[in-house]
Amino acid sequence: MHVCGRTDGQEDTRSRPESSHIVWVCCGPISLPDSVHMFLREEDRRTLVCKCESLPLSHALTLAVRTSGPGGTMASVSSLADEVSCPICQGTLREPVTVDCGHNYCRACLTRYCEIPGPDPNEPLHCPLCKEPFRLGGFRPNWQLASVVENIERLTLVSTLGSDQEDVCQEHGEKIYFFCEDDEAQLCVVCREAQEHQAHTVRFLDEAAGPYREQIQKCLECLRREREEIQRIQSRENQRIQVLLCQVATKRQKVIFEFAHLSQFLEEQQSVLLAELEKLDGDILKQRDVFDALVSEEICRFSTLVAELEEKLEMPARELLTGVRSTLIRSETRKCRKPEAVSQELGQRIRDFPQRVLPLRREVTTFLEKLCFELDYEPAPISLDPQTSHPKLLLSEDHRRAQFSYKWQNSPDNSQRFDRATCVLAHGGFTEGRHTWMVMVDLAHGGSCTVGVVREDVKRKGELKLRPEEGVWAVRLAWGFVSALGSFPMRLALQEQPRQVRVTLDYEVGWVTFVNAVSQEPIYTFTTSFTQKVFPFFGLWGRGSSFSLSP
């Protein structure tokens, strides 16, 4: 701690400091300008004792504007502002200067006042307030007053912005100006001077809020990033939900359609089977009528013979012996006919009837397998990629149909385009999941069509060998036969030539399956292990050969 060395009331007359602090150093009560000192209470004057330390002038002014109630701060600051107004312009002092008599003016105002010519050029200048003469160069800058003006303006701004009741100390009713870093408490002037905060770090509200604003800004940026991430997740998941809803809607329509088709088929089959049963019923009744007629005739004939013999038996001996031999011969030679109520052919038809239900059972089994398959595999809405198409392939505008042509198209070469193999890939590709798509093949004029999948790194330039070792899993449909393009091409024995081929891909299991989409006859299945993206693959050769992708 320094020793002051100044007499009581001596004022520091150093040049204006860089900061907005004024040092009033003395060995006794701190000396303040009259404009500030007049607002201090007696107890405040007694507490301000010099310790040879710097006292922020804003602190002194804060003490000066203390009142007994929460509404007095604004009035006190306003009174202070009136004390530091320029008598010439009536505004707040700007660059205040003091003349010999002690009055203060704005430098610019006083300079303009001195430039006004008087009636006598030799007459000295007079103070506009007290008319005391002063020399032209006799005014000097008042740095202390300039600092007072600066801090009064600051307090005026604080008072204006924070004049609500919530900015008032609940304990003392004073305006809150400070923040205690240690206790994280907002303080008024009285709280600031309390013993409990003497050793604490206390700052003005704006000064204390600065670091916290930076922390809040960083936290806000972090939270905004998190919010954006959540919004991205929400958007992505909403899109996924929409895709799933579309898939469910598609499956619902498929179930409705397939069951309606099955219901119609079952009704037709029911009508056919019932008609056959009705015919069997009629045939049985017809044969029953014939049988009943024959049996009745035989019963009548035998009843006549029985009656004749019974009558003969009751006759006397002479009458019994008359013609007895012929009667016995006629009765003994009369044989009973044994007709069948139901013919063997009709009985066989009845026994064979359950066989008529077997195709129906197979049809229902096929329906269930097809339905399970279509619900399990997601239809892939694929389209052809013109960037990969060989120049001899003509693609439709919607990129869902291709036709072979011996005329080369004006297609710019690129790394993705096939230059030797007349092939084309589909857009997109797959890296997971189960997918299926339909290909309708038209080979009415000959030629061949290749359908399958290929790896992303399949050879595009030069000769392409269509086999699994080269990343190609496909079948070739030609005029009259179908071949599986394995390590060695293998001609397949099929019941009919496919015109619509359904290709199914199970990426995780590693299956590529080909089925006749019309008859549901299996064509061929490749088994492999996929390690990269695969694309639907198509090839054509021969004039007029074409294919199209079923919607």
UniProtKB/TrEMBL annotation:
Lineage top rank: taxon = Eukaryota
Which N-terminal stretch is annotated as signal sequence?
none
Picking any one GO biological process from the record gives: innate immune response
Q: Which UniProt keywords apply?
A: Coiled coil, Cytoplasm, Metal-binding, Zinc, Zinc-finger
Question: Which protein is depicted?
Answer: Tripartite motif-containing protein 10
Q: Which CDD domains match?
A: SPRY_PRY_TRIM10
Q: Does the keyword Zinc apply?
A: yes
Q: What is its main location?
A: cytoplasm
Q: Where in the cell is it found?
A: Cytoplasm
**Sequence ranges assigned to domain B30.2/SPRY in this UniProt record:** 362-551
> What would be one Pfam family of this protein?
zf-C3HC4_4
Domain B box-type per the UniProt entry, residue ranges: 164-205
Gene Ontology molecular functions: zinc ion binding
- The answer to whether keyword RNA-binding applies is no
Q: Sorted alphabetically, which PANTHER family does this protein's record hold?
A: E3 UBIQUITIN-PROTEIN LIGASE TRIM
Q: Which residues form a coiled coil?
A: 213-240
Q: Show the InterPro entries listed in the entry.
A: B30.2/SPRY, B30.2/SPRY_sf, Butyrophylin_SPRY, ConA-like_dom_sf, PRY, SPRY_dom, TRIM/RBCC, Znf_B-box
Report the family membership: Belongs to the TRIM/RBCC family.
Q: Which GO cellular component does the record give, naming just one? A: cytoplasm
Q: Where is the RING-type domain?
A: 86-131
